[in-house]
Amino acid sequence: QHFGLIHERQMFRTGGILIQRNSPEEQKWVQGYPHNRVFPLDSIAKQVRLSGLYYPPNDTSYNVPVVYEDDHFAIVNKPAGMIVFSNRHDGHGQHALKEALPFVLTKPKPNTLDVLRRPQPVHKLDKATCGLLIVAKTQPALLNLSNQFRERKVKKSYTALVNGIPRINDVISLEEARALNVDATSDVPSVAAQSSDAGADNTESSSTWNLIDDPLAGQTSVTVWRTIKSCRSINAQDGYLTLVDLKPKTGRFHQLRRHMAWVCECPIVGDNHYDGGLFKGDALALRRNGLLLCSYKVTLEHPYYNTPAGREELDHTLTEKDGQIPFIWDYTDDKPTLLVSAEIEIPEKFQTMMDEEELYYATK
Fold first, then answer.
1. CA quadruple 204, 207, 208, 211: dihedral sign
2. What's the distance, CA 14 to chain centroid?
């Protein structure tokens, strides 16, 4: 192929030209630059993107459970310690969640329109945060889900263990919390129902919530939260660890971590950025299980089955399966909306931490 000078320079800038030297000391391909001299028997190659989809056979070495999946999007359970997106210089490479997705998800059916070459995460979770993450598999789904996040239609729920007794903010009713378009209910996360002698159960106050409306970096930031239960701890400030249920309306950088640390004055256990170290009880001793923050539930509109073409396909699916589908119908508007709601159990390390701290407190 023959390229113009501008095209050649662009390929050099984007790393599209590779050189392999004809010498025993240098057998690997290296990126080429305009100033490189080419010697006899050197090999020159141009990198091109292969056509088609990239869905290799499933690789069980990736510990990324799939909670929900269809041909258009998926919801996966991101483990703590795995970064969502990698960049050229961070060194994570194939250990990033985005790189693992083709190995854990299923290739869409051949008649699916505008399939992405690789599944694409729609939002981010911090590296230390575990829980549910939404992934798009088609271009229309990516656009629809991105718009839902922009319009704050996606309802997210988190559970966190915080260091101390949270300072009470504006108290609102269950109806007022729901009016903020967050997933406020009278139910409690599954960890509150686990059998344990540790902790005082505060589920009787589940009909009231607390509101944090405190800007971060000049942007509106709203979090609705409530206390689930607490336990005694010799390492915690005020002598207590508290399990809280968090419903963010907005999604600012480190919003939940900063709201709990700065507004409620109770940083999340294991948060080495905001826990205060030795100034918040013995926060260093509470870092042994990592950051105790989990995204345990998400509710969103289906990105395809609410479109005219998707609704027609859904009617055919309902006929085949006699109406048995794992979705939720929302009848608040004139036209019913199909919702997808996924929920996972809270990791065992939350209850383990509370049990250990309660036992250690009782023996002192």
1. positive
2. 30
**Number of other CB atoms surrounding residue 30 within 10 Å:** 11
| In contact, 285 and 269? CB cutoff 8 Å | no
6-35: per-residue pLDDT in tens? 666 677 666 778 888 877 666 677 788 778
End-to-end Cα spacing for the chain: 78
Pairing mode of beta strands 208-213, 170-173: antiparallel
CA distance 73 to 88: 26
Pairwise CA distance, residues 174 & 188, whole Å? 13
Residue 21 burial (C-beta neighbours within 10 Å; 0-12, 13-18, 19+): middle
- Contact (Cβ atoms closer than 8 angstroms) between residue 248 and residue 212: no
What's the pLDDT score for residue 79? 95
Q: What is the dihedral of CA 77, 80, 86, 89, to 10 degrees?
A: -170
**Residue-wise pLDDT tens digits, 71-125:** 999 999 999 999 999 765 555 555 789 989 999 999 999 889 999 999 999 999 9
How far apart are the C-alpha atoms of 199 and 86, rounded to whole Å?
39
Q: Distance of alpha carbon 275 from its chain centroid, rounded?
A: 21
Distance CA 359, CA 213 (A): 36
DSSP 267: P
DSSP 3-state of 356: helix
CA distances from 126 to 96, 109, 215, 295 (A): 12, 32, 20, 11
Specify whether the CB–CB gap between 207 and 243 falls below 8 A: no
Neighbour-count burial for 298-330, b at 16+ CB within 10 Å, e otherwise: bbbbbbbbbeeebeeebeeeeeeeeeeeeeeee
Cα separation, 316 vs 150, in Å, equals 31
Q: What is the pTM of this model?
A: 0.81
Q: Which residues of the chain have pLDDT under 50?
A: 195-196, 198, 202-204, 321-324
